[in-house]
Specification:
251 residues; alpha+beta; 20% strand; globular
């Protein structure tokens, strides 16, 4: 059982393509889509943008990451709609949430009368995992097993079966102003205590295509500059006519 748990929480089990795609999706949703929306509305204040972040991220998840091996499960919880990405090949389900909100959920809130969806997914899919550092609780698990099991069925509708080898991860993000400043994959146990944290900092680099375009622009700028031609054999300096003709050919 211990070896199975190690495999379940291994960073190598998550493909690099998935890690990169999550960073790209979140970055594009928050830095591009949200910023363009803000400019297009021309509102005096933008107090509701914080609630729109999830909408833009879910839209990008659905449009950019769904393919032959990744399914997008639509789910709602008391009127709140979201998306769950399921990697069928590696049997991992992911949801995206802000780092600040996830920290609040980890700390727990005694005023919650219903379990948050992250707790439901973790309870159903990561029940065999246990974080190395557990938080002490004098009140036991806050929700009945029946509530958690029924909640999971309502969320996924049988699209993922419990005890079928699937695990659950939470992708968190943090902003500095309007820029993505951090991104991580958290693997929680059923209590939302963190088993493992996988940083995605290495994937937060400028797009390769953008760098290529910048390099190409620099090369073109160099091409626009008149080049000094090597002296012709048997002559001390190029003639004025030859220089003019060379510049004409370059332009």
């Amino acid at each position: 059982m211990e070896s199975q748990q190690k495999v379940a929480i291994s960073a190598e089990r998550i493909p690099d393509s998935i890690k990169y795609s999550f960073v790209r999706v979140i970055k594009n949703a928050l830095e591009d889509d949200l910023s363009q929306f803000k400019l297009s509305t021309n509102l005096a204040t933008n107090n509701g943008l914080a609630f729109l972040r999830g909408d833009f991220i879910n839209t990008r998840l659905q449009n950019d990451m769904a393919n032959d091996t990744n399914d997008i499960i639509h789910f709602s919880r008391y009127g709140w709609e979201s998306r769950l990405l399921v990697d069928r090949t590696n049997k991992i389900a992911y949801s995206v949430i802000s780092k600040n909100r996830m920290q609040q959920l980890i700390k727990g809130d005694s005023s919650d009368v219903v379990p948050h969806y992250t707790m439901i997914f973790a309870y159903a899919l990561n029940n065999q995992l246990e974080a190395p550092n557990k938080q002490l609780s004098f009140f036991g698990y806050p929700f009945e097993e029946k509530v958690m099991e029924q909640g999971f069925v309502k969320l996924v509708g049988g699209q993922i079966q419990r005890n079928s080898g699937y695990n659950y991860c939470v992708v968190t993000y943090e902003l500095s102003g309007s820029q993505l400043s951090s991104c991580e994959i958290l693997i929680p146990d059923k209590d939302l205590d963190i088993v493992n944290t996988i940083s995605l900092a290495d994937y937060m680099v400028p797009e390769f295509a953008t760098l290529t375009q910048q390099d190409a622009s620099k090369d073109m700028a160099k091409e626009d500059q008149p080049r000094v031609k090597l002296k012709r054999k048997g002559s001390s300096t190029p003639s004025l006519v030859a220089l003019k003709e060379e510049k004409k050919n370059i332009g």
